[in-house]
C-alpha cells in the first residue's frame, strides 16, 4: 500500500469489485479505508489467538466472509488471508508459533 500511494496517476485499476478509480486523492482515501479493514482483521485474529490455533481453525473462524456466505471461493480466500495476516503479525512480534502449525498472540 505504501508503494501504491507513491504512484501519481489519473486512473487506478483495482480489484475487489472497485473497478477504476479516478484521481490520486480518491485512490488514497480508498487505500485508507482498506488499511482500516486490515487493522480490523488483525484485531479480530489477535483476539481469536488468545489460545493456540491452527490455520484451519482460523480459516473456519473467518476473517473475510460472514458465516452465511458459502461457495468454492470462501475457503481458499480465508486460508490465504489467514496466512498473510499470520506472516505479517509474526514478523512484527505480535504472534508466535507455539507448536508446529499452532499460533498464539504474543
Offer a concise description of the structure.
With 106 residues, this protein is of the alpha+beta class.
Uncertain segments are: none
What overall form do the CA principal axes indicate? globular
What is the name of the CATH architecture?
Orthogonal Bundle
Radius of gyration: 16 Å
Structural class, from helix and strand content? alpha+beta
| Total number of distinct structural domains | 1
Strands in their spatial order, largest beta sheet: 1-2
The number of helical segments is 4
CATH topology-level name: Arc Repressor Mutant, subunit A
Strand element count: 4
Helix proportion: 40-55%
Order of helices and strands: HEEHHHEE
Main sheet overview: 2 strands, antiparallel
Strand content: 5-15%
Quick one: CATH class? Mainly Alpha
Give the end-to-end Cα distance, rounded to a whole number of Å: 25 Å
Mean pLDDT: 95
Amino acid at each position: 500500500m505504501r508503494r501504491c500511494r507513491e504512484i501519481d496517476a489519473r486512473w487506478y485499476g483495482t480489484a475487489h469489485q472497485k473497478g477504476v478509480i479516478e484521481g490520486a486523492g480518491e485512490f488514497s482515501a480508498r487505500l485508507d479505508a482498506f488499511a482500516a479493514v486490515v487493522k480490523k482483521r488483525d484485531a479480530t485474529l489477535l483476539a481469536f489467538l488468545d489460545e493456540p490455533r491452527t490455520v484451519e481453525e482460523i480459516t473456519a473462524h473467518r476473517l473475510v466472509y460472514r458465516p452465511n456466505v458459502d461457495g468454492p471461493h470462501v475457503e481458499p480466500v480465508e486460508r490465504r488471508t489467514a496466512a498473510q495476516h499470520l506472516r505479517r503479525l509474526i514478523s512484527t512480534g505480535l504472534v508466535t508459533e507455539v507448536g508446529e502449525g499452532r499460533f498464539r498472540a504474543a
